[in-house]
Amino acid sequence: MEVVEHGKPRKAAVAAWVGSALEYYDFFIYGTAAALVFGKIFFPSSDPAAGTLLALATFGVGYVARPIGAFILGHVGDRFGRKKVLVFTVLLMGASTFLVGCLPTYEQVGVLAPVLLVALRLLQGLSAAGEQAGANSMSLEHAPENRRSYYTSWTLSGTQAGQILATAVFLPVAAMPTAALQSWGWRMPFWASALVVVAAFVIRRKLDETPVFEREVAGKERAKLPVAVLFRDHWADVLRVVFAAVIAAVSTIFTVYALSYAVNSAGLARTPMLWVGVLANVVALGAIPLWAMLADKVGRKPVFVGGSLGCGVLIFAYLGAIASGNYVLVFVVGILMFGVVYSATNAVWPAFYGEMFPARVRLSGMAIGTQIGFAIAGFTPTIAAAIAGDKSANWVGVAIFTAGLCLVNVIAVLTGRDNYRVPTADLGRKDAGGGRVPVASPGGATA
Fold first, then answer.
1. Measured in whole angstroms, how far is the alpha carbon of residue 263 from the centre of its chain?
2. In which domain, by residue range, is 84 found?
3. What is the pLDDT of residue 47?
């Protein structure tokens, strides 16, 4: 029997929400700037299409660093504690984002400008590598056993809030005259990160370490090299997470490629397209906890698979709506796909992945598996731009490509075990499939 202290699950979830919101505000303002501005100010202007392609590639570079960061921060989190990872990631992300706003342009310093841009994007990627895995591990290990999906979903709600902030802050910036936008306007969202990172740091410094990790410290059960234990005993689950995590391609296609395609190829206005992202993420804030509560009742796999298949279908409708130039259709389909259907996958994967691993390698398993999958997803805007070329009619090829990645996710999820009924202490044990979680009392304790 394990007792969950009343208030601690909520405190951990709030810390995960706030930190993830600020982390992903920083991470996604880069994507918005890459789609709207970076191709013009950091790369030679002789070929606009090439500049856009290179700018989107620098967005993907952040995902290259994430697997490397996952190995490093996964080790730190499983060896020395979840809290240390969460404090470090928010500081690193804040500093690197602020410095992006200080960079000189290509016209000012030549090739040094994109080199510095890529270097700072790599630091952002290192930070993001440990953020979600650390926050999800913290939330899962503090949560009541029959509400793990709900409490871990707060991390992804925070991610959506970060996307809202990242897109919303660019609404007035994108409306600026082109000269002002390209000279100083784009810098303001990056500089603003210095103000908000302090709040996340203070909140996370006050967070308690998880009971699971404290028991490991007391019992000396920590692995000296968690990654070695992970790949020796849980390599199949790591691979499963890698292939399941490519569902993040839906997010990168929606937030980066589709925005660039709409503005630069289909001729749609910047401001309405930014509003699609804002409204879809606002809807997601309400949808994610609802999907998570459903997953606590019926299991992770039905909700996860349903969301993935729905995204694979709706991506055709969304890119087709952009190609048609029908703003009403763009808003309706965009909100339905990203705000409602994609939220089903975001609500479930933090618990589904975390429940595959025991506590001693949980952060490493989640971080390494997700970040390799996310690295693949991070380059999908670049691949999509290459597929489409300069012909707007090629959106069908991009939709087929995205739907194929959704199918990869579905196969990976279906091959895994649904551990939603397994007690937290038994997670990661190969013989734990028959266990059932206890029922939570109104006061928050489990019996």
1. 24
2. 9-209
3. 58
Cα–Cα–Cα angle for 427, 433, 439, rounded to 5 degrees: 70
Lowest mean pLDDT across 125-129, 325-329, 390-394? 390-394
The answer to whether the CB of 222 falls within 8 A of the CB of 78 is yes
CATH code, domain carrying 40: 1.20.1250.20
Do 365 and 232 lie in one domain? The reply is: yes
- As a whole number of angstroms, the distance between CA 178 and CA 152 comes to 41
Out of 264-268, 366-370, 378-382, give the one with best mean pLDDT: 366-370
> Looking at the structure, do residues 314 and 202 belong to the same domain, yes or no?
no
Tokens of 447: 């019996």
Q: Based on the domain organization, do 320 and 256 belong to the same domain?
A: yes
User: Which pLDDT value is given to residue 48?
Assistant: 61
Least confident of 6-15, 48-57, 146-155: 48-57
Residue for token pair 């000012």: 108
User: Does 392 lie in the same domain as 351?
Assistant: yes
Distance of CA 198 to the CA centre of its chain: 21
Q: Which residues, in sequence order, are bridge partners of residue 440?
A: 446
Distance in angstroms (rounded) separating the CA atoms of residues 212 and 219: 11
